[in-house]
Every structure is written in C-alpha cells, then in structure tokens.
Design brief:
Length: about 625
C-alpha cells in the first residue's frame, strides 16, 4: 500500500486518510441526528467544531499508536485500540464543550453517534486494506504460474486459527485454505476466518471439494488421537503433514515454518509439558552450569533447554570430538547472553577433572555422560564400569569438594532390578548419589526414566533404515515392551526435577503407557505408506544379551509419592543406604577388578556391589564365540 514511501510520507498519507474519515463521520453524524435535514443555524456549529474534532481525534489516534501498526495485518487488538482512542477523543471533546459552554443549543447525542461512526469508519478502512492484500496474495501467486496447494486443516482450535491467519496474511505462503475438519460437533458448519468447518475427521473420505494436502493442527493430541487422525488421512491418499508438539518448541511458537511430516513422536502422544518456570529459573539463572555428555542426545537437549533460563556460563563437556564439534556448530548460530565453553575431556581422568572444576567452579552439574547401549556394555563391562561408575565417582568427589550447589544424575529404568551391566552400573551410580548426599553440602539427586525417541542407538532410526531398504524389519521379540518419551520432554523434566530436589531423591518421570516394539514397527511401516507383513516383512531375531522383555521404573521396596509436578514422582525411602566410606571402598575394589579385563570377574564384582543385579545370559553359541575372540584380542 505504501511501499517505497519514507516514514514521513507514510505518516502523512495515513493522517490524510483518517482526516477524510473524521470529516465524513462528523458530517454523517449531523445528518443522522436531524434525519438528513440540517436545521438553520447549525452550519456555523459544524464549521466551528469540525476542525476541533479533527485535531483532537488525530492527536488521540497518534498517541494510541494507530500509525505504528501495519494496516494489512489489522487484528482484533487494533480494532480495540481504535475504540480506546475514539473514546478518549470523545471524552476530551465533551470536557472542552463543558468548559467553554458549548453545550448550549448543541445536541449531546452528537458525541455518541460520532463516537460509533468514527470507530466503524476507521476500522472499516483498515480491515478493507487487510482484505485487499489477502485476496491480492492469492491472485499474485496464480499470476506468477505458482498455483497454491489447496489445504484442509484438521483442528479448528487455537493452532488451526493461527496457521490459517498466517496463510491468509503471508504473501509467500504456498497454500490456500479449502476448509477445516474438527471432531467437536458444536463447531460444524461454523466459519473460521471465512472458511467453513466441514465436519469430523471421519468425514474426510466424503469431502467433494478438491484439495491437495492435509495439515494436522492439533499439537496437544494424544497418541491414540493422532493414530486415528493419521489413519483417516492415509485413507484419502493425499499427502499429510503436522505441526510440532509444544514440547518440541523452545519458544512454544507454531508457524508455517514449523510444519513437518508426521513422525512416530506424534503417535506416542503430544501433551504439552507444563513447567514451573520460576523454580527452574531460580535453579539455573545466573549460575555456572556443567553438562557432562553435552554432545549426546540427552546432554545436547539439556544444553538447549538451559539456554532458555539465562545461566551465566554453560560448560559443555564431552569425550567425543565429533559430538562436541556438532553441538558447537549448532550453538554458534544461537544468540545468547550466556558464556558457552566447549570442553573436550573425560570424566574418568580424575586429576584433569579436578583441575577443570577448580578453574571453572561450576555451581550446577547435570551428569548425562554414560555408556548406555545394553548389548555393547554387556560385551565390554570394563568400559561401562570405568565410565558409568568410576567416572561418576570422580565427578561426585569433585562436586563435594567444590561445594557444587546441585548435582543431577541422569539415570535409567534399566537400573531397576538390573539384569545387564548397563543397568547395574547406573543403579550403583544412584546408590552413590543417595549415600554421599547424607554428608555433603551439595544437593545430590537422580532422575530415572526409560527410552527416549531419537536418541543415539534408538530403535526408531534403525527401523526406518530397514524400511527404506525394503526390509525386513528385525524385532528381537514380539512381546518386547518399553517406555518411551521424546528428548525435549525428558530434558525439560530433568530440569524440573533438579529444581524440585532437596537432596538424596531418586525422581521417576511419568513415561505414560509402555509401548510394544512390534506395534511401533508396524506404525513406522504404515507412516511410510506401506503395510507390515505385506510390503515389509518382519523377522524376530531373539532377545539380545542383557535385555528384558519389559522394564520397570520402581524397585521393590521403594515407595513413590507425588511431587508438585504431575509428571514427576519421588522415591525418598528406597533401599538401605550404605555409609559413604563403605560404598566408596566397594567401588574402588570394583574399579581394580575392572582393570583386570576379566568380564566374569567384573560382573561378579558388580553383583557384590549391587545385590539386586541378576545377570542373564541370552547369548547364543555364535555370540559366545564372538565374545571370546573379542576378549582375547583386547587382552593382547
């Protein structure tokens, strides 16, 4: 509308438009008041007071910021602002009349009529500009031989409204809206931004209007609801996409740029995690925060989430050069007041770790560094013990000596009644946290949860690669069940638990319903537009070393209780806590055993340190042969 105009020229043009509108409003008011027949003598009233009405209203409009907005994006808030400025102008005019005696012979209804007509005219002008540019956007795209993709939005709620508004207002949007679908029967037949709500999701197959794509705008849909929606979308044969869940977005803002394909995370469930921002802010703001394993799946997400709370310094520690490089490249594009240090090092080196912490003096430690792949740690228990146990011990000693404020251990459901080396080492780490907390000024705690979708070694990318190559999809056992949650949700809840902790707790995250791995594979195959067993074969390979058919979150004898957060439970009265001196001696003996390279002896040492550890051998003869060869070569 005013492209290429300078600031002063633009303001002059807008003032001129409103000047004309005020004149029309004042004239129309007099005509309406006197039934379109102006009595003799009122012409002088009109000519004397018209300049005053114009001046007062334009000044009021300017002070209320009506010329700072862009008319093509006029919204309800702009209309409300117009009403406020018109009301203020009318009040000033009434006071002027009262103090100057102007009410004599002047009909008071003029003020009310003028107020209403002014609001209607000024609002009409701005809304007309918005409608013009909305229609022009669609015409322009067609004229440029770029036909818009005709879109049906599934979900006529707040997110659907926002996406529709952005499509209408954006000149670069590749979409045009056909209508909405929503399962709320009250909305059926209603209009949203001028587009009709056509029916329920189940009615998709009966839609006769031509359309090209479907967009699911239901960021808080449950897993079952998403499965149902995806089923109907797939039956149409059209392409379908979705918007992210609110948990995935750091700032919670959904827009056209965030639209993506439907993933398995969506089928798992998309409820927003509501955090106590004040408690986390107090936990992290202005603090020096150390994240171990900062280049890993959980560690890197912890770093991203921490940045939202303005810590003074973030120390990113990892022993993987590649992982550290990757997170560094990502954060180099992030603008933050936080000082970020990328540190290559190993928590197993206690002398280096002590010097590092002495130099940077972290106030909060989020300990995510660990070896976690169950079959690999079964094969190399020495490495698991030295990192998950000895490395944690080094970090605990440094935190205790440096009087770190809070120490949060990232644990796992595999620590509950462990049958594998990974679970046993993490259970031992939990025991250390509970034991040292009894005599330390540092507040130690652990957070226990299950598998996270998309983490390194996660089953989903493995299945996706197998599907992409045409199969077969390899599943260990048809009855294998696991708890899952998304990486952002896990990281947010770890921070929330860290803010809640008073010391010595093991927090357990609510993981929702456990997921059958076979059902997961079936869902992933269907998301790829194929059918399991028909297009993609399924092969069962047998349970791997150290695996259980199902995982648990609470150890026998542990009593859970609710916390202030609905998705976090607390275990205060766990198993008997050993004295720190005794437990430390046990661990130091285990570390000596680990350096012997004897896997059986290491497992026996773990069993002695963690009585509930019951190692299970699911290895077949071939696996035993591989184990012997690897161990022999490693000794050599």
């Amino acid at each position: 509308m005013y492209k290429g105009l300078s600031g002063k020229s633009r303001l002059g043009m807008l003032l001129s438009i409103d000047f004309i509108a005020i004149v029309i409003s004042f004239f129309t008011t007099f005509l309406l008041r006197f039934d379109f027949s102006l009595p003799a003598g009122y012409g002088s009233f009109y000519l004397i007071w018209l300049p005053i009405f114009i001046a007062v209203k334009l000044v009021s409009f300017y002070l209320f910021g009506l010329y700072r907005g862009i008319w093509r994006y006029t919204s309800l808030w702009d209309v409300i602002n117009i009403a406020k400025s018109a009301a203020s102008a009318s009040l000033v005019l009434i006071l002027l009349f009262a103090f100057t005696g102007g009410f004599t012979g002047f009909p008071r209804s003029i003020f009310f009529l003028d107020f209403l007509i002014t609001i209607m005219l000024i609002s009409f002008i701005r809304i007309s500009v918005r409608l013009y540019f909305s229609n022009r956007h669609q015409e322009t795209n067609y004229k440029n031989d770029q036909p818009l993709k005709r879109l049906i939005l599934i979900g006529a709620g707040q997110t659907g409204e926002k996406i529709a508004r952005e499509i209408i207002n954006s000149s670069s949007s590749p979409y045009s809206i056909v209508g909405f679908m929503d399962d709320n029967p009250i909305k059926h037949g209603a209009m949203l931004h001028g587009y009709k709500i056509l029916g329920t999701v189940a009615d998709l197959e009966n839609i006769t209007r031509p359309y090209d794509e479907l967009l699911i705008t239901a960021p808080s849909a449950t897993g079952d609801q998403m499965r149902r929606i995806v089923k109907y979308c797939k039956n149409t044969g059209k392409r379908y996409k979705t918007v992210p869940s609110l948990t995935e977005l750091l700032d919670g803002s959904i827009s056209l740029s965030t639209i993506r394909d439907v993933s398995y995370n969506d089928l798992l469930g998309r409820a927003e995690v509501k955090l106590d921002m004040n408690s986390i802010d107090k936990f992290l703001k202005g603090k020096r925060v150390l994240v171990t394993g900062a280049g890993g799946s959980i560690g890197s997400e912890l770093v991203r989430q921490c940045l939202n709370f303005d810590p003074a310094m973030l120390l990113l520690l990892d022993n993987s050069e590649y992982n550290l490089f990757t997170i560094e490249q990502e954060l180099n594009t992030v603008h933050s007041r936080t000082s970020i240090r990328f540190v290559l090092g190993n928590i197993r080196d206690k002398n280096w770790l002590s010097r590092f912490c002495n130099d940077f003096k972290p106030q909060v430690i989020l300990h995510a560094a660990a070896y976690k792949h169950v079959p690999i740690t079964e094969r190399y228990p020495r490495e698991a013990v030295l990192t998950n146990v000895f490395g944690t011990l080094n970090l605990i000693n440094v935190a205790n000596k440096s009087k770190v404020e809070k120490f949060v251990l990232v644990s796992t459901d595999k620590a509950v009644h462990p049958v594998n080396v990974m679970g046993a080492t993490k259970r031992l780490a939990e025991m250390m946290i509970q034991s040292i907390n009894q005599l330390s000024d540092t507040v130690f705690m652990a957070v226990r949860f299950g598998n996270v979708l998309g983490s390194s070694g996660s089953v989903i990318p493995i299945f996706q690669n197998q599907i992409k190559s045409g199969g077969p999809v390899r599943i260990t056992h048809p009855d294998m069940i696991r708890y899952f949650m998304s990486i952002p949700e896990a990281a947010q809840l770890i921070l929330q638990a860290g803010a809640l902790g008073d010391g010595g707790e093991v927090f357990v995250l609510d993981m929702g319903k456990p997921v059958n791995i076979r059902d997961m594979a079936y869902d992933l195959i269907r998301l790829s537009g194929l059918e399991p067993e028909k297009d993609i074969p399924i092969v069962y390979t047998g349970v791997r070393p150290g695996e259980k058919l199902f995982e648990e979150l609470i150890i026998s004898g542990e009593k859970s209780s609710k916390t202030e957060h609905y998705k976090i439970m607390i275990l205060r009265n766990g198993n008997h806590r050993l004295l720190w001196s005794e437990l430390k001696n046990t661990i130091e003996k285990l570390v000596i055993i680990a350096k012997s390279f004897d896997s059986d002896t290491i497992k026996s040492g773990l069993k002695e340190a963690v009585p509930e550890y019951e190692p299970k051998d699911y290895m077949n003869k071939k696996s035993n042969l591989d184990w012997d060869i690897d161990t022999t070569s490693f000794r050599a």
